[in-house]
Amino acid sequence: MDEFTKGKRKLRVATIALKNITLLPGATIHFDITRRKSIAAAEIARSNNENVFLVTQKDPGVYDPKMEDLYEYGTLASIKQTARLQKGNLRITAEGLYRVKLGRIISDTDYIISEVYTDECNEKPDLYDALAKEAMMRVVIEQFAVLARSDKRLSLELDTLSAITDFDELLIKIAADIPWDYKIKQEVLDGADYSQRYETVIRELTRENQIIRIKNDFQNQLRENMDNNHKEYVLREQLKIIHNELGDGDHISESEEYERKLEKLSIPENEKNKIKKDIYRLKTMQSNSQEASTIRTYLDTVFDIPFGIYTDDNKDIKHAASVLEGDHYGLEKVKERVIEYLAVRILNPQGKGPILCLVGPPGTGKTSVAKSIAKALGKKYIRISLGGVRDEAEIRGHRKTYVGAMPGRLVEGLRQVGVSNPLMLLDEIDKASSDYRSDTFSALLEVLDSEQNYKFRDHFVEIPIDLSQVLFVATANTTSTIPRPLLDRMEIIEVNSYTENEKFHIAKNYLLKKQLEANGLNEKQVDITDSAIVKIIHNYTREAGVRNLERRIGEIYRKCARAILEGKKGKVKIGERQLKKYLGKEKVDFDHASEADEVGLVRGLAWTSVGGDTMQIEVNVLPGKGNLVLTGHMGDVMKESAQIALSCIKSCASLYNIEDDFFYKNDLHLHIPEGAVPKDGPSAGISMATAMLSAAALIPVKADTAMTGEITLRGKVLPVGGLKEKILAAKMAGVKNVIVPLKNKPDIEELSAEITAGLKLIYAASFDKVLKHAFAVQDTAKKIKTTHVKKQKTAENGI
Question: Quaternary state and partners of this protein (predicted)?
C-alpha cells in the first residue's frame, strides 16, 4: 500500500497525459500511448508496482503538454496490463481509483512527475437531507432506465446501478458506463460535489433521451412512408393485373400518357429529349413528393400549349369592312387604317407587319375595335391587362424551381385559346411599370419585336414558343409613359373623342339596345326620345367616350324596370322633362364664353383625359417689384410657358406704349381658376402671353375668341396636339373664333365639317398675328399711354 492509500494528502506520482479520453474512478479503460514520456511513465509505474496519474489534455493537438495544457482534476489509476505494439507503442489497461487534483509538475525530463493532492476532492459533504437524495437518485435511475431501453448493453447495468446506495458513486458509475464525450466526463470529474455532478448527469441523460425520441419519430415516419409507398406500388400492380384480366386495354399509367402526348407535340427533337428526362424522373420518384408535383405541373403546362395549332383566317376584306362598320359608328380614320392593315396581312400572311396601338381617351372604343378585328378575321380573342404590372415574371414567367412558379401571361393566354395565332390584346400598355428589380417594358420588347418573338422563351416553360403568328393589338390612353424603344415597334392609331352628333348616333344605334337587353326590357316597354338623348349627352355627361353615357342610360332603364314591375306604368316614355326625375339635377355646366370684352382675361383651350375643355386665364396688375405670381395648380411645363410669355411681352412692350419701368414697379398675377385641378402641358403659351399683354396695356380681349398654341421667346407660335377635342370644347362654350398655330393647319383639314362648322379658324405663325385677332381695340397707342399714366399715379397715391 503506497503513501496515498495510507491517508497522505499529497503524493508524487508518474503522470500520463491523455488525448480525448477521461478516466473516471471505478471505470476500466484501454488506450494506446505513443509519446516517449508517456511510455516511460507507464513502464516505471508498472515496474515499481505503483499507481499512475491519468489527466486529460485540454487541447489534443499539443504534443508536449505543460501545466497549463492539462485539466485541474484527474484520476489516480492502477495499471492492470500492458502490451507492446509495433513501432514501440504501448497498449495499457488501467482502472480508476480516486479523483485527485493536480498541484504542480515536478519534472518532465524523461517522463512527467506530478504532485497531486487529495484535499477535499474525495470528501462527500451532505448538501441535502436523506429524502432529497433519495428522490434525486430515483430521478437519475428513471432517466437511465429510459436510455437503457434503447441500448441492450446499458440495460445489463440497470440492476447493478439500482443496488448502489451511495449517491456520488451512482453518478460516477453512470458517467463511466455511458459512452459520452470525454468533455462531459471531465465535467463530471471536475464537479466540486455530488450536486454539480448530478446537474451534469441528469442534463446529459435528458438530452440523450430527447435525441433518441426524435430519432425514433423520424424512423417511424420513414417506415410509415415506405409502407405507404410499398402499399401503393402493390395496389398499382394489382390494378394492372385486374385491367389485363378484364381486357381493359385503354388504361395507361400517368407517365405513359405523358409519353403519348409528347409524341404528338410539334417541337424540335432536342426539346423533346428534355421533356423525356422529366417524364423519366417522374416515373422513378415517389408520386406524392413535392418534386413530383412540380414536374407534373410543368408537364401539364407544356402539353397545354398549342404548338403548331392554327386557325384559318377569314380573307374576305368586304366582310371585315362590314363587321367594323356594323360594330362602330364614326372612327372613320381608325376603320380605314385597320382595313388597310388587314388587306396587307391577307395578301402577305407571312409578312412581318407592325403592331397596332390604339391610343385615345377612356371610353372611346379601343378594346371593342380590337374585338371587331378578331371577329372580322375569324380569330380567337384573348385580352391581357397590363395595367399595374411591374414584374417582368408576369411576361416571361417564373423559374420553375421556385415554389409556386407559373408561366407568364402570354403563355397562359395561348393555353386558354388553344391556338398559336389568336388576336392578343395588350390592354393598358401605358399603365405597365418597372422597378429596380425588373423591367416590364424590356420584356415586352422581345414579345413585340418580329425579329425576336418567333423564338420567345418563357422562363417556366423553357421551350421556344413561336409568337410571330399572333396578331398583337395594344391599347393606351397616352404615349407619354411608353418608352421610346417600345413605341418604335408599334404603329400608333389615334382614337379621338366623339362629337355630340357621333355620341347621339352611338347611343341610338348601339347603347339603347344593349342596355335594354341588359336590364331585361324591350322597345315596347321603354322609349327614350331623341331630344332626351341629346340632353343626356350635353348636360349629364362630360367625357371623350361614351362610357358614362351608357351608365346614364342604364340608370334610366333600371328605374323603368322597377316602375314596370311595381305596376305603376305599362309603357314608359322619357323626354327632356322626365330626365330630372330619373337622373336628378344636371351634372355638367359648361363654362360659356363671356358676354363682353375684358382686359386681362383670355379663354384658352386644353386637352384632358376626358376630352377637351376651355379655361379662363386671368391676369391682374398690382403694385410691386416686377414679380410674376402664378396660381392655379400649374405644372412645371406651364410655369415655364408663363416665364417665356412674360419675356416675350417685355420685348414688345414699347410697341404698345407700356412704360419702360412698368415691369419693375408692378407685379403680374396670373391665375387659372379651379386651382385644385392640376394643369400642365405645352399649349397655353399664347393664351398667357395675350392675357399678360392685355393687362399691362389695358387692351380688352375679344370675348368670343379662344386660342391654343405654344410661344417662343421671339414670338413664334408652335404647334400643339389634341385639336379635335379642343375645338369641340370651343363649340360647346359658344366660341366663334379659334386661333390655332399655322403648323397645325394640316391637322385641322383632316377634321370633319361637322366639327369645324360654325367656327372661324384663324391660323397664326407669330404672336403679332395672335394679337391682331385677339385684341378688341387696335391702334389705340395714345389712349393706352394716357390711361396707363393715370393708373400709375392712382397706385402711387394709394387709392
Answer: Homohexamer. Organized in a ring with a central cavity.
